[in-house]
Write a structure and sequence with these properties.
The chain is built from 34 helices and 5 strands. The protein is mainly α and 654 residues long. The protein starts with a helix and ends with a strand.
Length: 654
């Protein structure tokens, strides 16, 4: 038979098969062309059973009949057929692909209802070849296809094995951006993970296994891969040192961003601290490979490190000197930090750099030839600072102490008023001690790396001791609070003090009047009574703060007891309130209270009322004129004769 006759014969057979397939499909489409037709999948969920002839004719399976896939309907003529049909077995035609798929991560998980099948990725009746832009498996659409599973909340919330929501992160990355722009070389899911042979990252054959990621990335970035292979990281990984970083360890996995993106881990602002420092500042890795414990921290303390952390985009990062991919040890003649190349490396930023300049910028203090000299100078300066500044503090302390004594001598010769009783002075003293100790020991827990915490550690106050001191101080604060409450409600003096401390409308007008006076808008000072508005505000803020700190502190001290009848979030909320209320109280005392009793020009170097309970009459007349008038009236009344039912008195004493 000639070639022409053979082709004609095959064409006729093909046409006959196509006609037969169309006739078979027509029988199925008599029902399945109905848009309202639905059925149920294996999980029992209702799904549409609508199929169009156009979708069949345009698919990769055009020319095939329905029964080629739904084989259990072959020869069946009693319609409607049984709804419980056997699943389509693609391996009938695609046996080689099916064999590969069965060994993949998806195939191994086939017993899991959430595991994908052929149809999950390729579709059902409208399957298109990969090179068709509309195919579910085309480079542009594949991430969306994969997201049908990898974007599901059920996978990210799996209590045993959480599969991260990689879709959103991929879509933010440079690869998805490239695909959206129509760049054919941009990586889609299959470029990194494979297609039917996709395997778990833990599988040594997986394209995204720790050992294989560089080769996977090399499919597109071969020039960089060659440099990486030459570098110490690539060589270490190649011999099985899994501590060595691969591409994903530095650039990320799915959310790979442009280097100039501030969110990119390899951006200049992030590279040193968050990429290189991840390993080179890890004590275990540093010790394991003998990297030198001071190398990374010395960079952080250098001008380059400080400038980068301060937001500089020009200061040198690790990659500026060591390069990014072909990182080599200084002993390698090809290394950018080899003694023969170091000057040239520095000249990239410092054109006039010479060898001495390059050597001075070594951040490897432990191996620097002048490190011992540097350490000696450092020790000399530390000793000098302690002696000189310590001497200055002692010198100034003596002068300040002299002024305090002088003011005390002057006050002893002045007529005074008993402003606070011994009980009130005692309460204030206990409160001050409890508050200061609570602040120091509380912030020591929250900020353990603060310089002043090292002083506590020097005196042996570590966490076990700190926690005991903090709780003892809390008990002292609660005790003095109850003591004060009993004083207020059950003593004559306490009730008098409470009446005087109670806020009134006059306080509001005196605030305005006081500010007018000190801004030059008025020549008249407000006439304050026993307590002015600042003292009242401080007192009631103290009452409120003590209640809040005591309640939240008890919750944090006994969390199991409180969560027995309160919701779990109460502990976290108490922790937040406790911290910020502590900050508010500390700043209020430092900024407001200390100003009026220590730093105010009229009080400096210190008011003695909190120690003696007494106030000079002239000070009362100046600061509390309304109270002074009350004292004068009281004295005049006593001179004329005591009145029945008189209240607490504040007499001048010599």
């Amino acid at each position: 038979m000639s070639v022409t006759r053979t082709l004609i014969f095959l064409l006729c057979v093909g046409l006959a098969v196509s006609v037969q397939a169309q006739e078979d499909n027509g029988t199925c489409l008599d029902c399945h062309a109905d848009p309202d037709l639905t059925g149920y999948d294996l999980s029992g969920a209702e799904i549409p059973m609508f199929v169009t002839e156009a979708s069949l004719d345009s698919s990769a399976h055009a020319g095939m009949s329905c029964i080629d896939c739904h084989v259990d309907l072959e020869g069946f003529d009693d319609y409607p057929h049984d709804e419980d049909l056997a699943p389509v077995d693609c391996s009938t035609c695609h046996d080689e692909v099916a064999e590969i798929f069965d060994q993949s991560a998806h195939g191994v998980a086939s017993e899991n209802p959430a595991a994908p099948s052929c149809a999950s990725c390729h579709g059902t009746h409208n399957i298109l070849p990969d090179n068709d832009a509309n195919a579910t498996t085309s480079a542009k659409n594949l991430p969306i296809t994969c997201s049908n599973c990898h974007h599901k909340q059920v996978l990210t919330d799996d209590p045993d094995i959480r599969i991260t929501d990689s879709f959103d992160r991929y879509m933010r990355g440079i690869h998805a951006e490239g695909i959206a722009k129509g760049i054919g070389s941009a990586a889609s899911c299959n470029d990194c993970h494979g297609i039917h042979d996709l395997k778990k990252a833990s599988d040594p054959k997986s394209m995204v296994n720790k050992m294989n990621i560089p080769q996977t990335c090399a499919k597109c970035h071969n020039d960089i891969f060659i440099r990486y292979q030459r570098g110490i990281h690539g060589k270490a990984l190649a011999v099985g040192i899994l501590d060595s970083p691969n591409c994903a360890d530095c650039h990320g996995e799915h959310e790979i961003l442009q280097i100039d993106d501030p969110e990119s881990p390899v951006n200049a602002s992030n590279l040193s601290d968050y990429v290189c420092g991840k390993c080179h500042n890890d004590p275990q890795i540093v010790e394991k490979f003998g990297l030198g414990s001071e190398r990374f921290t010395s960079y952080q303390d250098s001008y380059h490190g400080l400038a980068v952390r301060g937001g500089s985009v020009k200061a040198a990062t690790c990659a500026s000197c060591h390069k990014a991919h072909d990182v080599l040890p200084s002993s390698n003649p090809a290394s950018s930090i080899h003694p023969n190349n170091l000057t040239e490396t520095c000249q990239k930023c410092h054109p006039n750099a010479n060898y001495a300049f390059a050597a001075s910028y070594s951040h490897n203090i432990a191996e620097a030839q002048f490190s011992e000299l540097n350490r000696v100078i450092e020790v000399i300066y530390i000793i000098a600072i302690v002696l000189i500044i310590g001497g200055m503090l002692i010198h100034n302390g003596i002068i300040l102490y002299n002024y305090i004594l002088e003011k005390h001598r002057q006050n002893k010769n002045l007529p005074v008023v008993q402003r606070f009783t011994f009980s009130m002075v005692y309460q204030h003293m206990v409160l001050s001690i409890a508050f200061i100790v609570l602040v120091i020991t509380g912030f020591a827990l929250r900020y353990p790396d603060a310089w002043w915490v090292t002083i506590l550690n020097f005196f042996g106050i570590f966490e076990s001791t700190r926690s005991v001191i903090h709780r003892m101080s809390a008990v002292l604060l609660i005790y003095i609070s109850f003591h004060h409450a009993l004083f207020l409600f059950f003593t004559r003096t306490g009730r008098y003090q409470l009446r005087k401390m109670w806020p009134c409308m006059a306080d509001m007008t005196q605030i305005i009047q006081n500010l007018k006076y000190y801004t030059g808008l008025s020549q008249e000072k407000p006439r304050f009574n026993y307590y002015d508005y600042t003292e009242k505000a401080e007192y009631w803020a103290l009452v409120w703060g003590t209640i809040v700190m005591a309640m939240t502190g008890l919750i944090l001290w006994f969390p199991t007891a409180f969560t027995a009848f309160l919701p779990a979030w109460v502990v976290i909320v108490a922790e937040t309130i406790h911290l910020y209320e502590a900050w508010l109280a500390t700043l209020a005392i430092g900024v407001f209270h200390f100003f009026f009793v220590i730093f105010h020009p009229e009080q400096y170097p210190m008011s003695f009322t909190w120690l003696t309970g007494k106030m000079a009459v002239k000070e009362v007349e100046h600061h509390h004129p309304a109270w002074y008038d009350e004292i004068k009236a009281e004295l005049e009344s006593e001179t004329a004769g005591p009145e029945e039912g008189s209240t607490e008195k504040s007499k001048p004493v010599s």
